[in-house]
Design brief:
- The protein is an alpha+beta fold.
- The protein has a domain of about 55 residues: YefM-like fold (3-Layer(aba) Sandwich), CATH 3.40.1620.
- Helices cover about 40% and strands about 15% of the residues.
- A 3-stranded mixed beta sheet has the order 1-2-3.
- Antitoxin component of a type II toxin-antitoxin (TA) system.
- This is Antitoxin.
- Belongs to the phD/YefM antitoxin family.
Length: about 80
């Protein structure tokens, strides 16, 4: 959808919602235009990757992970 700048400013919340629901939105100002994208779409288009901290933060939680008890003795290690 195309938005005039004044309309986009007045209805910013709707513009953001439509961007997330429908995809990129174009804002027109005289002879110029900009496109508003969701962050997910931006990352897909640019190939941007999460930094290490974001990667760790996006990992699934393991709080409920139940591991079976380990059978046998621990191995000997020479230090």
């Amino acid at each position: 959808m195309d938005w005039k700048l004044a309309e986009a400013k007045a209805r910013l919340s709707e513009l953001v919602s439509r961007t997330l629901d429908e995809g990129p939105q174009r804002i027109l100002r005289r002879n110029d235009a900009v496109v508003v994208l969701s962050e997910e779409e931006f990352r897909r288009l640019t190939g941007a990757r999460l930094d290490f901290v974001e990667f760790l933060a996006s990992a699934p939680r393991l709080d409920d992970l139940e591991l079976p008890p380990r059978d046998g003795a621990m191995r000997e290690v020479d230090l």
